[in-house]
Hints:
The protein is globular, with a radius of gyration of 22 Å. By secondary structure, it is mainly β. It starts with a helix and ends with a helix. A hairpin with a 2-residue loop joins strand 9 (111-118) and strand 10 (121-127). The chain has 2 helices and 24 strands. 10% of the residues lie in helices and 50% in strands. It has one domain (19-289): TolB, C-terminal domain (Neuraminidase, 6 Propeller). The strands form 6 sheets. It has a 4-stranded antiparallel β-sheet with strand order 3-2-1-24, with no helix packed on it.
Amino acid sequence: MRLAVVLFASALALVPLDVEAQLYGSAATGGGYEVLYIDTRTGNTTTVAVAPTRESASASAADVAGGRYFLFYSSSFSTIDVRTGAVTQVPLSGGTHEFLTPTVYDPVTGRILGTRNAAGGSEIIAFDPHTGQVTALFRVPGRSPFDITLDAAGRRLFLIDAGDTLRIVQLDTGAVTTVTLNRVTAGTLYLEYDAGRNRLLTLSLAPFNLVAIDPVTGAVTTIAPVDVSQLVTGGFAFSPVSREVAFVAVVRRTNVPTPTAHLVVINVDSGTVRLLPTSGSLLQFIDEPLAIPTLQDAALLLLASFLGCVGLLALSRP
């Protein structure tokens, strides 16, 4: 019997866990914000929940493992469970929060990290997503960043200052390392960390290019040119599962007189660019495990069952 169990478990271990990169965003509506699921194949949107508020949303973040999408306002924030549609609103406390842009969720501590203006630079803050309590952490020199991103495992927070200076904050100690970037034209917009290749992903401006930054040397490499008229402020999302970034931009199309907003989806390994008409902003990827197996998975499950039966037959023989 033990042999049968071992054979079955060994074959089952070959079956991969399917994961789908799901993109979420938001859109202002009467009395609040709709939270939208955005299909990255078609650009179609589905309303997941409505977060009621009279304030304007300024930033978003995502708890990927917990399936939570956060929307931030000047005095409060909403937590939306994208799997159930449940919405919770929590007031912020502990200082002024008009500058809670940008923000990122830290899965190690369970807190949300952000920045706000401070004398001589910016201040890194953290707040509790359950209570809204805000705690000041560190001061960082230079101008306030437009975006930040996190290497959760390495405990590094990345900020790009004024388009040509990368600042790396070691969250365990507060130490700040400054790296000068090479070949970035007219600044950068947005920032995501690609842990699989230990690099930063961002958009360089004038011209628009998706680029990768080496956080050690500051070397900048173009992944793909982006032929858009202008970017729409509202987030830059990256999924390590699908290996894609997504953002919203105004695009001029042939034979279309009026430029329209499109969802831009780029594979960060191949540089393939897709343009999809869509609505929504403040984008976040949440990687959702799928319960439905593929045909390959089904075949492997059948193989596992067959090997288990063979093991049982072998053990039943004298």
